[in-house]
Specification:
By secondary structure, the chain is an alpha/beta fold. The protein has a single domain (about 1-205), classed as Class I glutamine amidotransferase (GATase) domain (Rossmann fold), CATH 3.40.50. The chain contains six helices and 13 strands. An eight-stranded mixed beta sheet has the order 2-1-3-4-13-12-11-8.
């Protein structure tokens, strides 16, 4: 069962529709029984880190979800804020612990004077550069473009988790993968054929 995790934060239906387009059926749910039967998870999210992590931790299914991911090694794909929550902490808002499934933190964009004209948030289409082989990236290359909306970006402590790189004033990590835990800063569900390829890869290959 493919589960889109509902914790009150995120554009859930657009992800469900994109998954349907690539030939799979997903359930949007906060039901603990359904989550316990999940075979793949998508963790969406829009908004602030502090609000998102507090909402997720408050859900009745949280301990079940954590067991599925950390003990049973069920695949999870974090999207945008959902990907940021995978990390240990963020510079955004009050200090609060993230999930810590990926070692590292979320940093605010800091541009030098020569890049002062770059607007924050980073919004719109941009390219991604693969940093290592991954089943998530089959059929994608440096000409693949995805849709971004964010003011903060990943900074991994474990460099081997770095999967994708994007440039906005300077290079930043835009995708991560560590065992069964994956995350992308962009919105595949808003990224047309490239997003369809990525979701298809995730659902077929993990």
């Amino acid at each position: 069962m493919i589960i889109i995790i509902d914790y009150g934060v995120g554009n859930l239906n657009s992800i469900k529709n994109m998954i349907k387009k690539v030939g799979f059926k997903a359930e949007i749910t906060s039901n603990i029984d359904q989550i316990s039967k999940g075979t793949k998870f998508v963790l969406p999210g829009v908004g602030s880190f502090e609000y998102g992590i507090n909402k997720l931790r408050s859900m009745s299914y949280f301990s079940v979800l954590e067991k599925k991911i950390l003990e049973e090694k069920t695949p999870v794909l974090g999207v945008c804020l959902g990907a940021q929550l995978l990390f240990e902490a963020s510079e955004e808002g009050s200090p609060v612990d993230g999930l810590g499934w990926i070692k590292g933190s979320i940093k605010k964009f800091k541009h030098s004077d020569k890049n002062y004209n770059l607007k924050i948030p980073h919004m719109g289409w941009n390219y991604v550069k693969p940093l290592k082989y991954s089943k998530l990236l089959e059929g994608l290359d440096e000409k693949s473009r995805f849709y971004f909306v964010h003011s903060y970006h990943f900074e991994c402590k474990e460099k081997e988790a770095n999967l994708l790189e994007t440039s906005y004033g300077y290079p930043f990590v835009s995708g991560v993968e560590k065992e069964n835990v994956l995350g992308v800063q962009f919105h595949p569900e808003k990224s047309h054929k490239f997003g369809m390829q990525l979701y298809s890869n995730y659902l077929k290959n993990y």
